[in-house]
Automatic annotation (TrEMBL):
One of its GO terms (biological process) is cinnamic acid catabolic process. SUPFAM superfamilies: FMN-binding split barrel. Transmembrane segments: none annotated. This is 3-octaprenyl-4-hydroxybenzoate carboxy-lyase-like N-terminal domain-containing protein. Residues 36-127 form the 3-octaprenyl-4-hydroxybenzoate carboxy-lyase-like N-terminal domain. It holds the Pfam family UbiD_N. InterPro entries: UbiD, UbiD-like_N. GO terms for molecular function: carboxy-lyase activity. GO terms for cellular component: cytoplasm. It comes from the Eukaryota. It comes from Aspergillus chevalieri.
Length: 149
């Protein structure tokens, strides 16, 4: 695994391991499905059912969302994937940690992704990241294979 991917994985694990938060939509989600549901409950997801080309069009739309601080797009109809046949198996969430236009919750998606309240300020988010960087990464245990002595 490349060094940068390992570093990101360890940082994310350290942030989540040191996070204690109250239950409810103001807290960090425990799974991606829960995170998506919370975004939908807060009306921060725009579901796009029109057919979209996943190679160029999807990336362009996502870039515009980041540039204009719009709602997170959820693409449900990807070109080349039959929705009826695959039962919407292939969906893509673009800009999952974008900036929100909700007053007082500009960084809510970023805050939720690292275990803070939705109302956390940019300063609190940076402080949390810096605090976690100082801690040792959690140990990684691999399963022994039959070839191991």
């Amino acid at each position: 695994m490349p060094l940068i991917q390992r570093s990101i994985r360890h940082l994310s694990a350290r942030i989540l391991a040191t996070t204690s938060h109250p239950q409810g939509h103001k807290s960090a989600a425990k799974s991606f499905c829960q995170y998506l549901q919370e975004l939908q409950d807060e009306n921060d997801v725009l579901t796009i059912t029109k057919e979209v080309d996943p190679h160029l069009e999807l990336g362009s739309i996502t870039r515009r969302v980041y540039e204009n601080d719009e709602k997170t797009p959820l693409f449900e109809n990807l070109k080349g994937h039959d929705r009826a046949k695959n039962n919407s198996l292939f969906r893509i969430l673009g800009a999952p940690v974008g900036i929100s236009k909700v007053p007082g919750q500009k960084f809510d998606q970023i805050a939720k992704s690292i275990g803070l309240l939705s109302t956390a300020s940019g300063q609190v988010i940076i402080q949390k990241i810096n605090d976690v960087k100082k801690k040792a990464p959690p140990p990684y245990y691999r399963k022994k294979s039959p070839q191991d002595p």
